[in-house]
User: Fold this.
Amino acid sequence: MPCIAKSSGEFHTGLKMKAVILAAGYGTRLVKDLQSVRNQKMQDLIGTPKALLPIRGFPLISYWIEALKSGQDLKDVFIVTNEMYYGKFKEWAKNYPSVTVISDGTSTNEERLGAVSCLQLTIEKFNIEDGIIVIGGDTLFYEDFHLQDVLKKYEVLYLDNNEANLVLSYICKDEETKKYGIMETDENQRIRAVKEKPLPTDTASRRACPCFYMFSKHTLPCVKEFLDEKKNTPIDEKDAPGHFLSWLVTRKPVYFYSISGRFDVGNLASYLLCNEYFQEKIIKLNYLQ
Assistant:
């Protein structure tokens, strides 16, 4: 699978990590798009969670598992989904002994817990005390992304400060700032602030942050603290993990690692673009061979 090179995953600091893949969304935008097209192949995808959509013939989430499962210190992968899609993920996970699938207990989009709550649910249910890699189940990166490079970067940060956290970042276009969380950083690659969907005139930064975070074990209690503070706020204020990141950077050291770009499979157009990208990469690779 070309988008994520496998990782040795072997840390030399005694650092241990687990992975949590967030896949409890209901894909409402994608469902509406699929229902509106007359293409039978596309309509057959109705009822498929975004993380299981076929990308170049493989379920999107399988790209991540293939990368993570090769790590000697990344043996546990937890996937959080909902009741509607729980059975589909359990069936898919039969091929991956290191994967544990759990449900957030909800059955409709209106009931959803939100991504940060799903993360806390996993931490509590499995009594996680190691560091964690948090990955959005509907996200893939360009084929020049290498997981082992990110792990090595985090290991360096951890050696210097075991409370350090690492997130990914790429440069977005001016008109895209209002769609993403935009990070403001310093000369040491530390994140000083995160602005949620700002206008291009509201910040000089163009550093978008996809859902891929490496959190120190010392950061895990902060997840519950954040949720306790936000317990009476609307779901939108605690759903997106970017809100937690914005809160976290004022309390813990968070650094960024640059990547060239990502695919956020939220609707039909972004799904088709992602699938086409990887199809073309394989065609080119086969031609060169």
Notes: Residues 36 and 104 are 29 Å apart (CA to CA). Confidence is low (pLDDT under 50) at residues 5-9, 283-289.
